[in-house]
Amino acid sequence: MSFAGISFDNGIFATLTDCSIVLAVVCLIVSEIIMNSHKKHYPVGAKIKKPAFVVILHAAAAILALPLVIRIILSCIGLVTDDKEKFFSTIKLLGQGFGFSFGIFFFTIIFSLPLGLIVAAGKMSKIKTISAFFTVYVSILRGTPLMLQLLLVYFGPYYLFGVTTGNIEIGPFNYRFIASIIGFSLNYAAYFAEIFRGGIQSMPKGQYEAAQVLGFTKMQTYFKIILPQVVKRVLPSAGNEIITLVKDTSLAQVLAVTEMFTQASALASAQVSVMPFIVAGLFYYLMNVTIETILGLFEKSMNYYS
Predict the structure, then answer these.
(1) Whole-prediction pTM
(2) I need a surface site. Which of 1, 118, 161, 195 has the fewest CB within 10 A?
(3) Measured torsion, CA atoms of residues 199, 295, 290, 250, in degrees rounded to the nearest 10
C-alpha cells in the first residue's frame, strides 16, 4: 500500500511500526507488573494512585502505538482513494443492507418490549400454571441459540403443519424477513422480561400500600406509580440489550435476508477486499453511537431527582 508515492507495506516505515508495537507491548507488560507489585501495599478496595513511572510507561506505549495508528488510517484512506467508484458503490449497496438491518431492529423493539412486559407479568402470576408456562418460555428462549430459533421459526410451519411459507408476503416483506422479526422478538422478549421482572420486584412494598391508601386501583397503581419507576430503574440494563440487538441483526443471514453483514460478506468476496467489512463496521458503530446518545438523553431526562 502506498500513499502520496510512499510505500508503507515495506521498508523503513513497516520495520518501525513492527518495532514500536513490540516496545509498546513491553511497556504495558512492565507497567502492569509494577502496578500489581504496588497494589500489595494497599488494603483491598482502597483507591490506588498510579506511580509516576507507570504513568510514563503508559504514555510511552501510547506514543509507540502511533505508527500503527497512522498505518491503519492511511490504509483506510488508500482503500477509498484507490478506487472511488468502487467505494461509493459499496456504500450504496451496504446502505440497502442497512435498511433491512434497521427494519429488523426497529420492529423487534416495537414487538419485544410490550411482549417482555406481558411475559414478566405472566412469570410473576400467582396462578401456578401461567407462571410455570412463562418460566419455561423464558428458560427455553434464553437457553438456546438465537440462530436455532430463527431457523425453527422459518422452517417450523412447513415441517410441523405442511404450510409452505415461500409465497407468504405482508406488504413489501417476504416471510424470510417476517420470520426474522418473529424470531428476534420472541428471543428478546425473554431477556426484557427478566429485566422488567427484576425492576418490578425491586419496588418497595410501601409503594403499593401507599397507593392503596390513596384509593388507587391495581391497574392505576401499576401504570401510574410502579411502571414509571421501573422504566427508570431498568433503562441501563435494557439499553445494553438494545445495543446488543443492533449487532445481533447480522444473524438474519441464516435466513438469507440481505441485511448489512450479508451484503458486506458478498461484496468482500466479489471485490477481494476488506473495505466492505470496514464500511459495515462503521455503519454498525454509528448506529450504536446514535442509540447510546438517545438512551443517554432519555436516562438523563428521567433522572429528575438530580
Answers:
(1) 0.70
(2) 161
(3) 10
